[in-house]
Design brief:
Blueprint (H helix, E strand, L loop, with lengths): L1 H18 L8 E14 L4 E14 L3 E11 L2 E13 L4 E9 L3 E10 L4 E8 L5 E11 L1
């Protein structure tokens, strides 16, 4: 009886420890990133290919304190700076809201931290441009 009670207690106590252990503290420091995708309008009409490379600095408290990217939208290349916020769930999934300058463009991304926070994957959820939708995926890694 003691053994089975101990086993049950172990399952209830240990499971949360092994279910995931990521926090915002795991996204900390400078990261490089890149992404590729497409943009389309509300009717589903293709607008442009999109790609970007850049770097972002996470403070381990849920903020992107600085960053920059070079983004290509069709045949236009733009240089932008960025700041933002992010969340991290215990399983490594999360969400980021990033503001780009110039233009005060606010975009949103679903994210997943991997490799103990040394890498991340992301998927755009909001383009920040009215009536423009994107399918964009990318990845980043600690510098």
């Amino acid at each position: 009886m003691k053994r089975s009670l101990l086993s049950i207690l172990f399952v209830f106590v240990a499971t949360p420890l092994f279910a995931g252990s990521f926090t915002v503290r795991d996204w900390n420091g400078p990261y490089s990133f890149h992404f590729d995708g497409i943009a389309f309008n509300a009717n589903g009409t293709f607008l442009a290919n999109i790609s970007a490379i850049g770097q972002v600095v996470a403070d381990g408290k849920g903020n992107f304190t600085s960053g920059s990217r070079s983004i290509t939208f069709g045949n236009t290349v733009s240089e932008q700076t960025l700041t933002g916020t992010y969340t991290v769930n215990p399983d490594g999934t999360g969400h980021a809201v990033v503001t780009h300058q110039p233009g005060n463009l606010v975009q949103e991304f679903d994210t997943v931290l991997t490799d103990d926070g040394r890498e991340f994957n992301f998927n755009a959820t909001k383009s920040g441009i009215p009536n423009v939708f994107v399918v964009v995926q990318g990845e980043g890694e600690k510098q």
